[in-house]
């Protein structure tokens, strides 16, 4: 849904909507719901609310797919993109991290929802904190079965020396 900034009434808007934004690499299992309060002060627009839904991710340890609920609180302020062109490039302060820009007088709610989803997905998704992962030798899912493999862990700093020793044994 696109919101025209100049049509936001003085008393503000309350919006409830469902959207399923397209995000590469993210499977959305059900439409995301958003309850938003939109207010305007001059050309600045304030958006507050909640976005909730569910995505399907792949666990980075055991490689199984799992569903992760997302519930994100939103508190953003929007400025016209023209303001960005007038200002010099400066480092963002902590309180400016929740600032975005609109162009051509439009704010797209799908962009708001997409941003909240992407910000909520962990860098290393885990199906559970105690996920044991898979065996690096035989590939057994260690959450379901145990295997008899022995994993000899080598300090990565010493791995180069081990490969050097192998070459020396081959040649000599």
Topology record:
Layout: E1 2-4, E2 13-19, E3 27-41, E4 44-58, E5 65-80, H1 81-86, E6 99-102, E7 106-108, H2 109-120, H3 159-171
Parallel strand pairs: 5-6
Antiparallel strand pairs: 1-7, 2-3, 3-4, 4-5
Q: Any overview of this molecule?
A:
By secondary structure, the protein is an alpha+beta fold. The chain has 3 helices and 7 strands; from the N terminus they run βββββαββαα. The protein has helices at 81-86, 109-120, 159-171, and strands spanning 2-4, 13-19, 27-41, 44-58, 65-80, 99-102, 106-108. The strands form 2 sheets. A 5-stranded mixed sheet has the order 2-3-4-5-6. Strands 1-7 form a two-stranded antiparallel sheet. A hairpin with a 6-residue loop joins β4 (44-58) and β5 (65-80). The model has no long low-confidence stretch (mean pLDDT 86).
Main traits of this protein?
alpha+beta; 18% helix; 172 residues; five-stranded mixed β-sheet; two-stranded antiparallel sheet; 3 helices
In short:
The chain is α+β, with helices and mostly antiparallel strands. Helices cover 18% and strands 37% of the residues.
Any idea what the radius of gyration is? 25 Å
The CA-CA distance between the termini, in Å, is 72 Å
Number of helices: 3
Q: How much is the average pLDDT?
A: 86
Major sheet summary line: 5 strands, mixed
Share in β-strands: 35-45%
